[in-house]
Amino acid sequence: MKMRTTALALLVAGVATGCATGPDRKPGDPLEPMNRQIFKFNDALDRTIAQPVARGYQKVTPQPVRQAISNFFSNLGDLGNAVNNILQLKITDATEDIVRFAMNSTFGIGGLIDFATPAGLPKHHEDFGLTLGRWGVPAGPYLVLPLFGPSSVRDSTSYVVDFRFSVIHYLKPAVRNPMYIAQFISARSDLLGASDLLQAAALDKYSFVRDAYTQQRASLLRGSGSNAAPLPNYGDPDAPGAAPAPGASGAAPSGLPDYSDPGDSSAPAAPANGASGAAPTDQAAPANSAQPAQPAVSASAPAAAAAAAASTAPAVAAPVPVK
Questions:
Q1: Residue 210 lies in a domain
Q2: Phi-psi region for residue 123, left (φ > 0), alpha (ψ -120 to 50) or beta?
Q3: Per-residue pLDDT tens digits for 217-271
Q4: How far apart, in whole angstroms, are the C-alpha atoms of residue 237 and residue 150?
Q5: Which residue, 75, 102, 134, 202, has fewest beta-carbon neighbours within 10 Å?
Q6: Vertex 54 angle, CA 216 and 114, to 5°
Q7: Residue 240 sits in which domain range?
Q8: Could you tell me the pTM of the whole model?
Q9: Is pLDDT above 80 for 69?
């Protein structure tokens, strides 16, 4: 009798635990049910408003003008990068940010032309969330914010603080508001190709964006993203030598986990890595290779980073400085 009572108590405890955590919730994403609903809202807003506006902007604005506008906001973002690098005691990076701003503002006609990058001054990407992480503040659970997109409990604080680091924030409303709108349209236009990549791959976009975002933030926190190679061309139709986006053929990029949406019956289920019996691509190297093994998602880090950035596109409508 005592054993039956104990077994019944364990069963009830197991059911209660399952109800509390959910069957598909990941350890780093305990808020997944809520996050998915907010993600759907952001995605619908992006598809119905942000993307049409960005595509119209691309059609009516020549590519050199679009590039100049993007350079202008990127140049303003270097001041915020410099402040965060100072807070992180990265004096060399902060000096490079200040010199970049001075050079592009002086010789680049207010930042419309990027002279600093060809001159060897790397572009850094910092925010207050990374500054907190630099001093040991844990990221906390993954969090999707309305309009702002993927974030975490720690990184969500950066939106409030980084406003104060933005030059645009201190302008008069008559100038500030149009600049925020232009910033949104420019940033969303730059990420249209990454959005097309997500759509063409027929993935569970929520899981892909979550993993891409967390990987990108971890990479930036380690400092490996500061001097990273530029992202591939994700489909600007007017750009000279434009190449098709990786993975745009409809298949998931090689080396990525299977992110097929289990609830999408229209998409054929893709076999998991190694399910066919063949060795995975990134395990083909000899065992004694000097190159350490990397996680599978790292094989497409630029695409993942762009996909994570594209998922925040609705948030660009909010006045967030471009870094």
A1: yes
A2: beta
A3: 998 888 744 444 444 454 444 544 444 444 444 444 444 555 555 555 444 444 4
A4: 28
A5: 102
A6: 65
A7: 39-252+296-317
A8: 0.64
A9: yes
Is there a domain that residue 15 lies in? no
* Cβ contact 129:158 at 8 Å: yes
Q: Does any domain span residue 81?
A: yes
Q: Which of 14-23, 185-194, 210-219, 229-238 has the lowest mean pLDDT?
A: 14-23
List the one residue out of 140, 158, 137, 70 whose CA is nearest residue 108: 70
Whether 302 and 252 have beta carbons less than 8 Å apart is answered as no
Any domain includes 171: yes
Q: CA-CA distances (angstroms) from residue 143 to 31, 139, 158, 209?
A: 7, 10, 13, 12
Q: Which of 188, 299, 169, 183 is nearest to 246 (CA)?
A: 299
What pLDDT score was predicted for residue 223?
74
Domain tally, the chain: 1
Three-state SS sequence of 228-269 = CCCCCCCCCCCCCCCCCCCCCCCCCCCCCCCCCCCCCCCCCC
